[in-house]
Amino acid sequence: MNVDELCTFPLFRNLAPEDLEAMLGCLSAREISPRRGDFIMRSPGEHPLMGVVLEGEVEMISEDYFGKKSLLTVLPVGSIFGESYTCVKARNRTIAYQARTHCRVLLLDYERILHACKLVCRFHHRMIENMVELIAEKNLVLVEKLEVVSRTTIREKLLTYLARQAKAAGSRTFTIPISRTALAEYLCTDRAAMTRELTRMKEEGLLDYDKRTFTLHTETTGAP
């Protein structure tokens, strides 16, 4: 792994390459390259790990006791994952991380992150501060999803999600980052029912779409 490259990632912000190189050894860092569809880890696991997305995208998936899956979010390059669930013994629910595309992922020993050795204590706290900031950012993303899925109808869920995407893009026309199947999972709804609702919304003039590209009408959605 290229230490200079790693220094550009948010988790390692403001760390000197020589300090980071020493720290990686203490954290038992190793890089893996999962292919699309491969599961990277499940939390909580026997040995707690934290991942950093170096390339590609990773899906964060919730699995309940009965095996039902729900897409929580898609983690882009620079994201960390696994940190919030490694210390939680959730018997009825598992959080899984799956490669959405071909990925490069850096795995770190989470216990060693929390308990710094003497070799790295002088700069270890900087990485922990970075990690806390990233956890806070991820929590905001999950709160946004909660606001979307708490809507009563499929139409309300779609409009809330699409309006957020339009706002993030700064345009009424934008491309969503996930497929229709993944969108249905994200909204916690049936794909066929969601597709029918999208068709009705298009016929009513609320929106237009072509595959993953959507255009919202400001007078009906409040999008930019």
Précis, in short:
The chain has helices spanning 3-6, 17-26, 110-114, 121-149, 154-169, 180-187, 191-203, 218-221, and strands at residues 30-32, 39-43, 49-55, 58-64, 69-75, 80-81, 93-99, 104-109, 173-175, 207-210, 213-216. It is an alpha+beta fold and 224 residues long. It starts with a helix and ends with a helix.
What count of helical segments does DSSP give?
8
Query: Quaternary status of these chains?
Result: single chain
Strand portion, in percent?
15-25%
Uncertain regions spanning at least 5 consecutive residues: 220-224
Percentage of residues in helical conformation:
25-40%
Name the shape in a single word: elongated
Overall average pLDDT: 86
**Secondary-structure element string:** HHEEEEEEEEHHHEHHEEH
